[in-house]
Amino acid sequence: MEAEQETDMSYETIQVDPLSPIIGAEISGVDISKPLGNQTYQELHDALMKHQVIFFRDQEMTLDEHKAFGRHFGELHIHPSAKAPEGHPEIITIHADEKSKVVAGMKWHSDVSCDAEPPMGSILHLHTIPESGGDTMFASGYAAYDALSEPIKEMVDGLKAWNESAHVHRDRFGASGKLRDGDDAFPESLHPIARTHPVTGKKALFVNENFTTRIEGLNKNESDAILKMLCDHIATPEFHCRFRWREKSVAFWDNRSAQHRTVWDYFPQVRHGYRVTIAGDKPF
Amino acid sequence: MSYQTIDVKPLSPVIGAEISGVDLSQPLGNQTFQEIHDALMEHLVVFFRDQDLTLDQHKDFGRHFGELHVHPAAPGPEGHPEVINVHADAESKWVVGETWHSDVTCDDEPPMGSILHIHDVPDAGGDTMFANMYRAYEALSEPVRKMLDGLNAVHDSEHTLSVRYGDEGRFRDPEVRYPSAVHPVVRTHPVTGRKALYVNTSYTTAIEGLSKRESDAVLEMLLRHIATPEFQCRFRWRPKSIAFWDNRAAQHRALWDYYPQTRSGYRVTIAGDRPF
């Protein structure tokens, strides 16, 4: 573990209970529908930096309150093509029921890494959940990067990869999605394979099974093999936690250091909620 | 390159040439030896037709190029430890060399080259494919080449040879029936100075310093890469043909598409030095 993570952070306004030593912590003692005091904001941000994803229980929030909570952490991000509730372009509806043929996020991914400036984080609030099932898994990109061998680290440190969205979003949303930009409905971007987190300064593996299609500068046979290996690597259980939702739970993940994967094991039951996404900066 | 004593016709621009104008059963003159060696360095595998060679003449030809190598386990004809049988017929359950490989890379000092003389060939089939490992290396992208340049790989023989020979082998060293060695993933050819990819499907089991997942992924990628047709030629045998390959720069693969027919011959293998 990094020295920074060993530091005993003391929280004065919230309580933080880790789900695993690697990633994830449940936070209690705060009503996030209300404006946050400076100290509470700082402690939530500290906990997010340390644990990469933080969870809250029993939060009642309107869409406006949900957005206001998100704005503490930055400008809100507008998804290039996903459906939004009327009047709330910064919100994505997350919904699955007995009519669903697919659900979003069944592969390990970082949100919207196809954007030139992918989100800093996402805040998911679920209102309706199945009796059991519908967990979300989170993986630490730091732990994944750190566990690579030195020769592979050295190689990927100098490489960038294409993150594309057409193959993911065109089928899912087609022309029915709200398009953020008619000319750029399905963006693609070149990002470092190992990105440096702008706050912690630590390196995180930043390729994902959903959006990352090829490594720039390698030929196809090489790129396919290295990408597949890295994506298999991210799926290592030791880098993960698995969050069990209850109604009105919130998960807030740092999209720069963590990946996540939804588990669709509850068909035909309903799972429903909203996501607010916070804008991020260009990966380096 | 111009040849005065032999005629050299490439099979492909990348690898392989057929040599005519020389009887290998007779001692080679200096100039002829030099020209055959030059052709081997240039084409990585050279072929000869209609050669009548006894086992002793076969070995004498090999000795022009170096000491002869004794295989760790493969059986051969009585009294000729430096010769191995290459034989398949209606009784065969397997044949040697059906995966891309360089010979005996499990040895610390793998062979410089091998000379295969086939006496009996099927009506059609039983070709041998050869692949140019300089080309394979050069066709890798710069970042992958850079990574591989510093790495070593384990070449093991137990998984290959123990299944094949069990207790029936002719063991060079009864204590170490199935040697294993560590060699650079990219070796520098001691004569040409060029870099060649030096991992193969038959013997290479792991890349040192990588995790198992990384090693498996990189090795699998490289072994698929080696099988690229643009790096290859395919030699069609006739009775009494010879193939002589540079084991440091070429890999090869036998095709067993002629069952239940017979294909039979002998191989003399020339000792090599430690890869670097």
Give a structural overview.
The complex is a heterodimer of chains A (284) and B (276). Chain A has 284 residues and is α+β, with helices and mostly antiparallel strands. Helices cover 23% and strands 26% of the residues of chain A. Chain A has helices at residues 3-6, 38-51, 63-71, 141-146, 150-157, 166-173, 220-234, and strands spanning 15-18, 25-28, 53-56, 91-96, 121-128, 136-140, 160-164, 188-192, 194-196, 203-205, 212-215, 240-243, 250-254, 258-262, 271-278. In chain A, the strands form 4 sheets. In chain A, strands 1-2-3-13-5-15-4 form a 7-stranded mixed sheet. Chain A has a 3-stranded antiparallel sheet with strand order 12-6-14. The longest helix of chain A is centred in the last third of the chain and has 15 residues, at 220-234. Chain A is globular, with a radius of gyration of 18 Å. Chain B has 6 helices and 15 strands. In chain B, strands 1-2-3-13-5-15-4 form a 7-stranded mixed sheet. In chain B, strands 12-6-14 form a 3-stranded antiparallel sheet. Chain B has helices at residues 30-43, 55-63, 133-138, 142-149, 158-165, 212-226; strands at 7-10, 17-20, 45-48, 83-88, 113-120, 128-132, 152-156, 180-184, 186-188, 195-197, 204-207, 232-235, 241-246, 250-254, 263-270. Chain B has 276 residues and is α+β, with helices and mostly antiparallel strands. Chain B has one domain (7-270): Clavaminate synthase-like (Double-stranded beta-helix, 4-Layer Sandwich).
Notable traits:
A: 284 residues, three-stranded antiparallel sheet, 15 strands, 23% helix, 26% strand, B: 276 residues, alpha+beta, Double-stranded beta-helix, seven-stranded mixed sheet
- CATH homologous superfamily annotation of chain B: Clavaminate synthase-like
Shape verdict of chain B: globular
Series of secondary-structure elements of chain B, N-terminal to C-terminal: EEHEHEEEHHEHEEEEHEEEE
Percent range for helical residues of chain A?
10-25%
Assign the CATH topology of chain A: Double-stranded beta-helix
User: Looking at CATH, which topology of chain B would you report?
Assistant: Double-stranded beta-helix
Order of helices and strands of chain A: HEEHEHEEEHHEHEEEEHEEEE
Name the beta content range of chain A.
Answer: 25-35%
Largest interface: A-B, 22 and 22 residues
**Overall spatial form of chain A:** globular
**How much beta of chain B, percentage-wise?**
25-35%
**Residue-averaged pLDDT of chain A, rounded?**
92
The description of the largest β-sheet of chain B is:
7 strands, mixed
Helix/strand/pairing class of chain B, anyone? alpha+beta
- Derived from helix and strand composition plus strand pairing, the structural class of chain A reads alpha+beta
Give the count of helical stretches of chain B. 6
